[in-house]
Amino acid sequence: MSGTARAGDPGAAVAELTWAAALDAAVAHVGPDKVAFFFEGPEWRSRLTYGDWLRLSDRAAAALTRLGVEPGDRVAVASPGGPVWPVMQTACSRAGAILLPLSIRYRRDELMYVLGRARPKVVIALERLRQTTIVENIRGALDALAEEGAGGPGAPTGPASPRPPLVWFADATAPGEDSAAPTPDPGATEMSWEGFAGLGVELPEIWPDVDARDPVLLQFTSGTTAFPKGALLSSRASNGVAFHLAERMGLREDDVMFSTQPFYHVGGTIGTTLMPLTHRCTMAVPERYRPEVAREVVRRYGATVRTGQAAMYAAELADPGFDADDYKTLSRGWGAGAPALVDAITGRMGVTDLIMAYGLTEAASISTACSWTDPPEVRTRCCGKPLPGMEVLIAGPEGVTDEPGVVGEIRIRGWSLMEGYFEDPAATAAAIDADGWLHTGDVGRLDADGNLHFVDRLKDMIKPGGENVSAAEVERVISELPAVARVAVVGGPDPRLGEVPVAFVELSSGAALDEEELIEFCRREMADFKVPRRVLFVDDWPMTESGKVQKNELKARLGGTGDQLVGSSG
């Protein structure tokens, strides 16, 4: 059931392997006893060796087949960071199934939409995470779908779907050591993880025939639409991206890499799970990211490489408990941020060989990246060159071009692109044109050396009175003020201009700065139509699990449009 043949060659042998085959190769190379993952929660720690990963994964794959999972079927997983993710990712690959990550922050309507749309054959979930009753939320959504046959607002309607079995586990360290739980009836609607594992004691003599080009990951991403779309990604795309990003970070087999990324995002399923398969390193992963947890995990496991979104680095640097000595083993990693933040990461935190990258879910997370061997003024100030076999062009005012300096929509083509949106050919055709170019919805430019410079997301362009203002540009200027720890700029309603820039600002500890001073600084640094009309000082930020500020929630704090005369389109 091979997927779409995307143009270009990843140029990496591991990209031609399925996830499961890559695990086989990794175990053969490093042996069964090397640690692939250290996991850590508030009250627990566990490790997963390469050998246990393979053993538990094959057992889970056998259990999936006993439950009737066939190649192309979806298997949903909902959990914070823990061993279940790498085990189920390669188990799905072995069985020919497609992994469907579910955010633990989804509520009933969101679960109904995604589950109703994707129709998984099996659902696997942690029982609860402190106050979040994950299994209860999923159980309610599955029951409603079985009764109503509808996937909630925006999902296709139809006859009631058969209720898939729900596999739950109470301990975030699962799957761990083998348990002697009785084997359940494969037709049961619910079972424990131990019972599920009991179904896989006997491995099949022949596994399904699976190709690296087959879809293996169904990642829902909201993008700019009202309802999320499911991007189908292959082992070839995801392994290729993991390999080349690791190469550009200088990742080695003896490295310990600290990952901040939740597994139900591509930063986790690709950037965390797959790097041990491509580079045979060790990962250190917290159950959930928090600034104080980050420094503890880095220190405890002696992490040498790390990941992080701009907001995460800013939070760690601003944390009262920050101590550069906790990060002394780090030297390399990827990140993002304005120049002042990047300088603090490389200086105060000591991640001297930091690189920046660009990508999106529809292209398996990363399409361009700097190299750790690039000069600092390059790798910390742009998003680097395309990965081998990938192409990047800019759709400017006068057409699509690779000319330096032209600002326009970023277009991407090559082997890392999704196979398409799940069962949505119209949306796929709108995103990927007939020549194979993905229209990203992001704005950027290329320089004379072919490096990509990210400018802003089209949806983050603010249009006061018809002018175009990049939120990222305003954020960059404001972040140059020493008193500013974090800033986010959004479009706020204005009765005369339609919308105007509004800045949300968090001050550095002990710093003083008022609204008038900040606005006056901006007036000196940029055109008047770019200057924020309001400044709101905050210390609580609505964040996604992957560490990004939720600008839609910031906009909601500004209220409605009132009596404005001009729409936000200018």
Structural account:
The chain has 17 helices and 27 strands. With 570 residues, the chain is an alpha/beta fold. Strands 2-1-11-10-12-13-14-15-16 form a 9-stranded mixed beta sheet, with helices on both faces. Strands 4-3-5-6-7 form a 5-stranded parallel beta sheet, sandwiched between helices. Strand 25 (484-494) and strand 26 (498-507) form a beta hairpin. Helix 1 packs antiparallel against helix 2 (50-66) and helix 4 packs across helix 5 (134-148). 53% of the residues are buried. Residues 561-570 have low confidence and may be disordered.
Task: Characterize the largest beta sheet: strand count, sense, and whether it forms a barrel.
Answer: 9 strands, mixed
Q: What general form does the structure show?
A: globular
Number of strand segments: 27
Helix content class: 25-40%
SS strand fraction: 15-25%
Structural class: alpha/beta
**Poorly predicted spans:** 561-570
Discrete helix count = 17
The average pLDDT score comes to: 89
Strand order of the largest sheet: 2-1-11-10-12-13-14-15-16
Radius of gyration over C-alpha positions, nearest whole angstrom:
24 Å
Separation of termini? 47 Å
